[in-house]
Amino acid sequence: MAGSQAYPLNSLEQTEDLKAFERRLMEYVASLGPSTGRCRIILIVVSVCTATGAWGWLLDPRTSQSLWNHPFFTLSCIVLVGLFLAGIHKRVVAPSIIAQRCRTVLADYNMSCDDTGKLILKPRPANT
């Protein structure tokens, strides 16, 4: 039985293992918070700059001539595309992706978790 225990865990050991897993999951989700917050702020600022630049670009009668007449809009668009190519959209939603994947795995054990990583124990199914 390589990789598995030769004896069953007792209730106290199971409880401690669940608590340790919950602490680690909550710690990991919480560690993503500051990075996610910064990425959201950056994405919002660049999106507002792009929208503001687009508004000026659309109101300009020389719109069809060149984007170089509107360097603010052009630069904002380039930065926004660069951020998406760098994966900022994945960093913004990373905590919810982690929580969803954990819910998928925990469902096999009649458990779930919230968006902060806290475990939710579900009632055992009735034996028929």
Alpha-carbon Rg, integer: 24 Å
Q: What's the average pLDDT?
A: 83
How far from one another are the termini?
31 Å
Q: Structural class, please?
A: mainly alpha
Count of extended strands? 2
**Individual helix count:** 3
Largest sheet: 2 strands, antiparallel
Low-confidence stretches: none
Q: Provide the β-strand percentage band.
A: under 5%
Order of helices and strands: HHHEE
Helix content: 55-70%
Overall geometry: rod-shaped
What strand order characterises the main sheet? 1-2
InterPro entries: NEP1-R1
GO cellular component, one term: cytoplasm
Family: Belongs to the CNEP1R1 family.
Keywords: Cytoplasm, Lipid metabolism, Membrane, Nucleus, Transmembrane, Transmembrane helix
Topology:
Layout: H1 11-59, H2 71-85, H3 88-106, E1 111-113, E2 119-121
Antiparallel strand pairs: 1-2
Pfam family, one: Tmemb_18A
Organism: Branchiostoma floridae (Florida lancelet)
Subcellular location: Cytoplasm; Nucleus membrane
Give structural notes:
With 128 residues, the chain is mainly alpha-helical. The relative contact order is 0.13. It is 65% helix and 5% strand. It has three helices and two strands. It has a two-stranded antiparallel ribbon. A hairpin with a 5-residue loop joins β1 (111-113) and β2 (119-121). This is Nuclear envelope phosphatase-regulatory subunit 1. Belongs to the CNEP1R1 family. Its main location: cytoplasm. One of its GO terms (cellular component) is nuclear membrane. Keywords: Cytoplasm, Lipid metabolism, Membrane, Nucleus, Transmembrane, Transmembrane helix.
